[in-house]
Amino acid sequence: MSRPPLVFSKTLIDGGEARRLEWLHRMTLPWDSNTWEIAARIAQDQHRKVAASMTQAAIFHAGGGTTVEPPLALRAVAEKAQLLLQAVIVPGERTDEGKLVEAVAIPWFDIVALLAKDPNFAFEIPPDKWEEIVAGAYRKAGFEEVTLTPRSGDHGRDVIAVKRALGAVRVIDQVKAFKPPRLVTANDVRALMGVLQTDGASKGFVTTTSDFAPRIQTDPLIKPLFGKQLQLINGTELIERLNEVAQRR
Question: Is the pLDDT of residue 109 over 90?
Answer without folding.
Answer: yes
